[in-house]
Amino acid sequence: MTNLMFNLRAAVRLRSAALGLAIMLGPISVQMILVPMTTHAAAPAPLQSFNSAGVSPRPVEDTTSASIQRDYAHAWKSLVVALEENRTELLNENFTGTARQQWQEAIHTQKQNGLSRRIVDHGHSVRVTFYSLDGSALEATDTADLEIQYREGGKVISTERVQAHYLVLLTPAENSWKLRMLQEVPAN
Amino acid sequence: MNKILPVVLIVLAAALVAAATMHSSTLTPATTPEGAVQALLNHVKSHDSEGAYRYVAKASNTAMPDFARDIFGETGNLRTYSALQLFDTKVLREGDQEASVRANLQWASAVGAVYDVRDLKVVREDNSWKVLWPVQTRAKVPPQVIPVNYLRWDIVTRGSDDDWGAQNVEAPRVRIISMNPVEKDGSFILLGEIENEDTVPGFVSVSATLIGKDGQQIAQEESFDKISHVLLPKEISPFRIDFPNMNRSSIQSVHMQPNAMLVPASADPVMGVMHQALQKDPRGHSVLTGELMNQSGQTVNIPHVLATFYDNAGKVIWVSDGYVDQSLVPQTPVPFSIGVRDDLAAQIHTYRVTVNQYSRDHVQ
Amino acid sequence: MNSLHRSIIVGLLCTASALCLGQVRVSGSGQAGADATLQISGSGSTTLYLFGPGGASKRTVQRGTVTIPGDELKVAGRYVAVLDDSRTSFFVSAAPLQKISFITHPSRVPAAANGAVLGSAYLFDRYQNLVLAPTPVSFQLGVAGSAVEERKVIGKNGVAWVQLNSGRRSGPAQFIASSGEVSVRRVVQHVAADPCNIRMNASRAPDGNILVETDAIRDCSGNAVPDGTIVTFTSVDSAGRSTVDARIKRGFARAELPASSSATLSVAAGVVLGNEIHWGGGL
Q1: B275 and chain C: CB distance < 8 Å anywhere?
Q2: How many angstroms from the chain centroid is the CA of residue C117?
Q3: Is residue B116 part of a domain?
Q4: How many domains does the structure of chain B reveal?
Q5: How far is B211 from chain A (nearest CA, A)?
Q6: Domains of chain C with bracketed CATH
Q7: Measured between alpha carbons, how far is C234 from C228 in angstroms, rounded to an integer?
Q8: B11 in a structural domain
Q9: Does the residue A44 lie in any domain?
């Protein structure tokens, strides 16, 4: 009898503890499921490769090379998010001139038609092909490994994985390099 | 009792306030030469020209307005933007009727602290000591019309919405033509000269970045006012960049960055620097003295003198600067004196003086 | 092998081949701004999605021949057409050259300087696409009335560049980049280089001072050094050193130095020294 009473008390205590724990942890768990934790925007991944060897007419300085890689990676990250969320203002920081105009117009019409693109960026291999003597512009080719989902509303209508080839023109701005042209070209 | 006490307190407060604000109309005679100088300078410090003038000897033959102009400035010169902050005095020589007192003055001005040393003659007058304060009267420039036909540059730049590649005008080409790093008094100092090689005027500055042994940047400084900022075509300015508390041994390399931008400018006024000579001041320190001559028709309110000192190999071994607290009226010489490091005086083979100018109408 | 097996094999092969994905075939010039025609197999209506660098659209079309207007294909790049479960892509290339963005450097250059003038020409079509096809570009540089330097290059990936010497004569030089009917011009101001052979003369001024004056100051190519250039006159005598930073006015520089019975006078502009005069015997 004593043992049974003891066990009963222990069981009640255990159950109470479990209930208390559940009451405590429950809301937290629900919050974790329903409300995604705010994460800080991660820095863009560095480029897979950046080749500026033998560039003419001007060699690319180390500091310029580092800046270009940083700013180009930032530009792609902005473009990916802008195309997915249909937000043209995201292009203001890293795009300029024709590229900004064209891609903002593309996003605008995309949004008007209820469409979007989700890009998973698997990396870029960039090769510099031209750096002007006065440092006012730099041209490069970029082979990008992209997975693109074409969407209407929240529905995926098609997906593809491509090795996309871009011709890229960057020009220096106040404190960064900005993308002035981003033109996709055939592989040859 | 309760009513009387507040009334008494109010009356007492009023009396104290009145006493504090009432000017003393009686002169406290100076009983010593040093006391006379100190009394005069205390009134100067309080911006009380009348009070200070009461300690000026009649033998000075200085009228009150001239004295006030000499002490407190005129024509927008540097003295008008200054206040006497600190001074100390020392009796050099004292007799029954005459004495000599050295006054070291520190003025707080719009361009920083300005130091001045005056050896003042003090005389006994009417049973008290008074300071001889002769004011050099400057010759008046006769009224005249002076045509200003020197070149002037204005700038029109491209608009912010202009097409990429549209025609634009560029900043002037400048070049650092010499650079010499030295270590003095625990500071690492970069001396040198910069030339505007272009055919247009530019606003110029020089900055330097020190790179440490580990390849990291350890300090960055600019030339600030140890440079003549507006350079006309082919004009050369010295520069000096100070890195306080910096050891040369911790520096691997220096990255110099000259900066220039197009600014509107005038080729006027033309400045002459006459009778430059290395001398000793009353304290025995080396100074470069001379006279500034404004050869144009426009008053230069605040002249800034820069001196470059070279050794016998032509290397820049020091750059000094100083502001002249008198304005430069046309065609009237004004003396200047700037300090030279005593430890370098013997190495100086030659020197060059340039003048930066600030006029109320424009900056040059 | 029965027909079911054959269909499966064809289907597997088709999923591996982009051509087979085409129930859609694309034809047209493939140039920016030109219409493109899609041939969609089958019958009935369907929804066509078009994604590209110029935008994204959705339309209901009747299978058969569908024309995509050139307005939607202005931006060069890859376009993806999606309909039903299939997808096809096609490239739009730049239209013919219509605009050159010409970046020149510097805007002012000393005369007779080697390799001092740089020009980069970026080739665009009317829709601001880079014209990637190799394109001949001609660069010309010259001041009116003097010889024109010309260089022909082939633009690669939309860029053509050149490095030229500045002419010997000062003045506004026209720097022109042209290809076919398209040309653009910039002005590169040729200015006098460093002064050459500065010569001064000294005489006594009416007030007793020393009046110094230079001959006309020119560079080594004979171009007049512009007004406003600083010329420094120096006098060294027993009283010390006196300097005047004079400015060239109407081609000459002049100044008054303090009177002296014996002084050494010198003149300089920038880092170029002129002659020395020993006044009254000099020091």
Answers
A1: yes
A2: 10
A3: yes
A4: 3
A5: 15
A6: 3-92 (2.60.40), 97-191 (2.60.40.10), 195-279 (2.60.40.380)
A7: 18
A8: no
A9: no
The percentage of residues in chain B with a pLDDT greater than 70, rounded to a whole number, is 93
For residue B188, being part of any structural domain is answered with: yes
- List chain C residues with CB under 8 Å of A108: 55
Tokens for C265, please give them. 């006078």
Whole-complex ipTM: 0.79
Global confidence as pTM: 0.76
Window 141-160 of C: residues touching A by CB (8 A cutoff) are 156-159
Does residue A15 carry a pLDDT above 70? Answer: no
Distance in angstroms (rounded) separating the CA atoms of residues B17 and B11: 10
Q: Is residue B334 a part of any domain in this protein?
A: yes
Residue type, A12: V
Range of the domain at A119: 49-185
Judge: C245–B271 Cβ closer than 8 Å, yes or no.
yes
Q: Residue B67 sits in which domain range?
A: 27-131
Assess whether pLDDT exceeds 60 at residue A7.
no
A74 and A160 fall within a common domain: yes
- DSSP class per residue in C34-101: S-EEEEEEEEEEEEEEEEETTEEEEEEEEEEEEEEPGGGG-S-EEEEEEETTEEEEEEEB--SEEEEE
Burial of C42 (0-12, 13-18, 19+ CB in 10 A): exposed
The counts of H helices and E strands in chain B are 5, 20
CB-CB: which of C77, C82, C157 is closest to A184?
Answer: C77
- Chain B residues closer than 8 Å to A171 by CB: 164
Contact C102, C118 (CB under 8 A): no
* Residue B159 structure tokens: 């608009």
pLDDT of residue B17: 64
